Design the sequence.
């Protein structure tokens, strides 16, 4: 979706679009700011959605490095909610964007001290560690965070990516498994775990990757990455089992044929290059 | 020997890819013109004519990278080009070295098949809308490590490269760039970015006409 011509949207459509981006966690800094300009006149009529939009705009402004704009809107929120920890978090985010990490950490530590259960402030601390390039410290802090807040999907996802960055594949796989436990019907989670298992290599991991790719395809038959992944895995398995013989090889072989037919037809030339023929 | 020159469209696509996903690490491969290349030699003169943007997420898992490289190899053979390098930009603004870039294994694989391959790291600090210096650093592989090559001397085929790319950034052309991840999500997209190549060709053509007018 690309609304290249924003003038065509009515104000209600703009509000809906902003809501959609909010729910999908999309990071479109410049577009949000442009759209926001058009709805400033009607902001007060939006009720409580006004504050959600303001929060979205503050983050968008920080993303585009318009610090004064961001501070302006943070002050507006402060006027409506004086002494609020949520607003303090935005102040800390503003300092973080300006790379004044020590001051930001101070504010966040104050928030955490006054409210032990404030998950968002803890997560921002971890973001600051990551921004400073201290990946190992970020991992440690994130692991401690997850001991307290085990059902935070976003955090498990971030931890999985951090582990991949430092090449701890088995720990990354563990995090990906946690994600599947939380969202067993999400095909992307299965596909991600399968990707990690494939990267790890070795027959058992290949078998696991194969079953996760199959599950992802069951949940969403159009998942191209799962189709291609299944093709790669089955080919790898067929060549592994060449020495052995018997049931496992013919199973893998049949699945490979199915994957080759099912996966994208336009890639067929490339696939033939990779494919193992008997 | 060992001269590396970049075409406008190759450089432009690298910068546009990095600009499209400022909050992610991005990577891609470089294609060189295959006419004078002899595959086993190190230190050949390379003329990098194109770059293919690959991924902006899931850098550390390999299956899609294998598929992408196979497909690009096939396409490159048809066009008489060679996969001659790899480029990457780091997620963190301050990381500008080879070690912090994603996908180093891909780069090592490329060097195995093509010893003169280059590794281009996008210099985050020099990515601005009005480029006055090239925002990249080129590295060559020697003795198991990527060593920076002749810092500050990046050869471009056209003298208008920086202006052209600045112009593209200001017009937000990066929104139309398609990388392999976009192609995997939607197979109607064109990962060879012919549209952007045509745009760059037309800008180059009008620059050439202006240059002739100026010299008259």
Sequence:
């Amino acid at each position: 979706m690309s609304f290249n011509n924003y003038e065509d949207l009515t104000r209600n459509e703009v509000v809906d679009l902003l809501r959609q981006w909010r729910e999908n966690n999309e990071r479109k800094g410049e577009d949000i700011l442009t759209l926001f300009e058009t709805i400033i006149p009607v902001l007060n009529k939006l009720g409580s959605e006004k504050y959600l939009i303001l929060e979205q705009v503050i983050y968008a402004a920080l993303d585009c490095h318009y610090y004064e704009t961001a501070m302006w809107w943070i002050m507006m929120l402060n006027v409506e909610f004086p002494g609020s920890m949520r607003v303090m978090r935005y102040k800390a985010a503003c300092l973080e964007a300006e790379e004044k990490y020590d001051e930001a950490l101070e504010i966040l530590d104050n928030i955490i001290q006054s409210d032990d259960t404030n998950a968002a402030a803890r997560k921002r601390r971890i973001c600051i560690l990551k921004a400073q390039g201290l990946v190992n410290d970020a991992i440690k802090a994130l692991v401690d965070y997850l001991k307290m807040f085990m059902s935070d999907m976003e955090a498990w996802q971030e931890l999985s990516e951090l582990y991949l960055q430092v090449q701890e594949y088995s720990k990354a796989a563990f995090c990906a498994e946690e994600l599947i436990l939380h969202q067993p019907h999400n095909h992307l989670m299965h596909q991600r775990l399968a990707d990690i298992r494939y990267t790890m290599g070795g027959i058992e991991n290949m078998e696991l990757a194969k079953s996760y790719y199959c599950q992802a395809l069951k949940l969403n038959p159009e998942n191209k990455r799962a189709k291609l992944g299944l093709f790669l895995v089955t080919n790898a398995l067929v060549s592994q089992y060449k020495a052995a013989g018997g049931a496992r090889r013919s199973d893998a072989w049949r699945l490979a044929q199915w994957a080759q037919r099912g996966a994208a037809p336009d890639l067929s030339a490339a696939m033939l290059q990779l494919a193992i023929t008997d | 020997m060992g001269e590396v020159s970049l075409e406008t469209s190759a450089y432009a696509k690298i910068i546009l890819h990095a600009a499209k996903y400022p909050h992610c690490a991005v990577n891609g491969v470089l294609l060189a013109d295959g006419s004078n290349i002899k595959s086993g030699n190190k230190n050949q003169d390379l003329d990098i004519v194109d770059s293919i943007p690959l991924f902006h997420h899931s850098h550390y898992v390999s299956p899609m990278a294998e598929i992408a490289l196979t497909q690009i190899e096939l396409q490159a053979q048809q066009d008489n080009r060679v996969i001659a390098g790899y480029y990457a930009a780091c997620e963190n603004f301050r990381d500008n070295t080879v070690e912090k870039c994603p996908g180093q294994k891909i780069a090592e694989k490329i060097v195995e098949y093509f010893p003169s391959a280059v590794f281009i790291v996008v210099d985050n600090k020099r990515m601005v809308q009005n480029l006055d210096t090239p925002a990249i650093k080129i590295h060559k592989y020697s003795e198991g490590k990527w060593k920076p090559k002749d810092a500050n001397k990046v050869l471009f085929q056209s003298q208008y490269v920086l202006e052209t790319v600045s112009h593209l950034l200001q017009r937000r052309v990066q929104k139309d760039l398609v990388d392999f991840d976009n192609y995997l999500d939607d197979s109607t997209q064109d990962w060879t970015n012919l549209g952007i190549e045509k745009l760059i060709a037309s800008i180059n053509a009008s620059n050439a006409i202006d240059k002739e007018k100026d010299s008259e």
